């Protein structure tokens, strides 16, 4: 039973960590090489695509999506999708897809004269299931070595840790006051019942 317990605990925290890693914003320092629009038809991977842009017909089986193609300082290619999140999840309330597309297009540069851009995004890139991180904002920075402190992530994770600690403390108090005495009472009754049966059979013998 101990193995089952710890397996469930590990699986739970892996799911929580994966959810937070996908949902919380991240920053990449990149050079924008191109922006383009492509017709996509979400299928089995639709969970990893945002809803249709606000104001459009969300029942359409496929739609046009903006993409931002970039290169990292070490030459790695990263492609971002550019979709509204609207009022849905994650709660970034992004409604400016077209404006962001125009900004990203204006910030394009070449390797000869690079302009380094901080792309704020959430999500994962997987070529296997064809999913892309969703760009939330772009801004020019001084260079490829700029360090961006994720203050929002620090604040959210600190708040979640405090909430978990508060729940754990209250659960331990509840367990000590309610559950443990109940279990001890049941155990005492079982012990008393066992003693009574033992005395009864001893008398008969």
* Apparent shape: elongated
Poorly predicted spans: none
Cα gyration radius (Å): 27 Å
Q: How much β-strand is present in the residues?
A: 15-25%
Please state the structural category. Answer: alpha+beta
Q: What is the count of DSSP helices, taking H or I runs of 4+ residues?
A: 3
> What share of residues is helical?
40-55%
Strand tally, please? 5
User: How many domains in all?
Assistant: 2
Instruction: Note the gap between the termini.
Output: 39 Å
Order of helices and strands: HEEEHEEH
Average pLDDT over all residues: 86
Largest sheet: 5 strands, antiparallel
**Strand order in the largest sheet:** 3-2-1-4-5
Organism: Pelagimonas varians
Protein name: DUF1523 domain-containing protein
InterPro entries: Phage_phiNM3_A0EWY4
Pfam families: DUF1523 (PF07509)
Could you give a quick summary of the protein structure above?
42% of the residues lie in helices and 21% in strands. The protein is α+β, with helices and mostly antiparallel strands and 205 residues long.
Task: Provide the descriptors you would attach to this structure in a database record.
205 residues; alpha+beta; 2 domains; 5-stranded antiparallel beta sheet
């Amino acid at each position: 039973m101990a193995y089952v317990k710890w397996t469930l605990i590990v699986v739970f925290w892996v799911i929580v960590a994966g959810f937070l890693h996908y949902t919380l914003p991240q920053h990449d320092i990149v050079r924008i090489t191109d922006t383009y629009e492509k017709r996509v038809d979400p299928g089995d991977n639709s969970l990893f695509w945002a809803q249709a842009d606000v104001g459009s017909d969300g029942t359409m089986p496929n739609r046009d999506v903006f993409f931002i193609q970039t290169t990292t300082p070490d030459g790695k290619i990263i492609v971002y999708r550019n979709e509204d999140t609207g009022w849905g999840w994650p709660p970034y309330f992004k409604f400016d897809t077209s404006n962001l597309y125009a900004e990203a297009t204006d910030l394009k540069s070449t390797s000869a004269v690079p302009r380094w851009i901080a792309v704020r995004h959430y999500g994962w890139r997987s070529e296997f299931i064809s999913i892309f991180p969703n760009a939330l904002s772009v801004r020019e920075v001084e260079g490829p070595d700029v360090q961006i402190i994720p203050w929002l992530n620090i604040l959210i994770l600190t708040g979640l840790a405090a909430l978990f600690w508060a729940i754990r403390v209250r659960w331990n108090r509840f367990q000590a006051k309610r559950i443990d005495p109940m279990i001890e009472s049941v155990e005492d009754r079982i012990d008393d019942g066992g003693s009574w049966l033992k005395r009864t059979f001893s008398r008969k013998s």
